[in-house]
């Protein structure tokens, strides 16, 4: 396969290159694209050293698979050009996620939705992590209501977000005072910020509404009642989520534990006696989403369950999910 990674120098792009190598994706040619800032940079990859190129819309490269990790605007401008030039495109941005004719795919949940599509959307990172745990619980117990509170790492805002947290922490620890902020709306060190993406007329942020809209589409449950509060926290990597569900049928912690223990893409981390539960430090760098702290929720009685999940949003929430989509496609090399 001739594969192009667009945004290859970014937080998601770097992981895409690594995941292609780690999973043994059949890459015969790898091309890396980024902005003019990185043009000409030589990057080591599992497929040998590569030079970063700048995409030229006047002559799109001949690719079988294009993995996009730039921005929504960039994808809107160029994804369809790449499709027209023969590539199947998997897009990490939010540009096409809610379009009716573009499948939004988490392979453990709705792999078949990708069908023969040539443009496929990768979900929002928080949503993908949530969906791998919600889908098996829905199949077994039926979902009625979902309430989620998130704890999202700085790398959710890309390489610059991670850098701002690292620089800010160093500055505050060395000199005291308050860290500078440019990527985040407020300083993130020693803080948390209940504001990710823009506020909507209904009082939710766009990040929170993405969890609602995209979970409904991925799970094929257009009327699912779901409310999210999304919070940026001063961790580097992996998003955590506290989840409360009300189910159609009675659910016990033991039954939920059994379902999640055999769910693809989920790793049970639920041994409170030994202080084992999902955490960013243990979920980072892992393909599976950790699920734990499973307990009955007394508000919803025998149909209520609380649990905690944590997943590496650069992997399951982005790069890994995109490569899994590519693996599930009946891709053929273009002429
Ligand atoms: N971070 C996450 O957790 C996450 C999760 C799911 C989805 N996503 C989505 O994935 C995409 C990438 O996010 P990220 O976090 O990886 O961002 P990032 O770290 O800021 O990386 C952005 C990448 O895009 C390149 N780029 C920027 N402007 C460009 C332009 N005008 N033309 C060509 N390339 C350009 C950058 O190249 P230079 O290095 O040369 O500037 C860099 O390689 C976004 O759509 C984001 O919403 C992110």
Automatic annotation (TrEMBL):
Pathway: Amino-acid biosynthesis; L-lysine biosynthesis via DAP pathway; (S)-tetrahydrodipicolinate from L-aspartate: step 2/4; Amino-acid biosynthesis; L-methionine biosynthesis via de novo pathway; L-homoserine from L-aspartate: step 2/3; Amino-acid biosynthesis; L-threonine biosynthesis; L-threonine from L-aspartate: step 2/5. Keywords: Amino-acid biosynthesis, Diaminopimelate biosynthesis, Lysine biosynthesis, Methionine biosynthesis, NADP, Oxidoreductase, Threonine biosynthesis. Substrate binds at residues 152, 232. Residues 2-117 form the Semialdehyde dehydrogenase NAD-binding domain. GO terms for biological process: 'de novo' L-methionine biosynthetic process; diaminopimelate biosynthetic process; isoleucine biosynthetic process; lysine biosynthetic process via diaminopimelate; threonine biosynthetic process. Homodimer. NCBIfam families: asd_B, PRK14874.1. HAMAP family: ASADH. This is Aspartate-semialdehyde dehydrogenase. It comes from Muricoccus pecuniae.
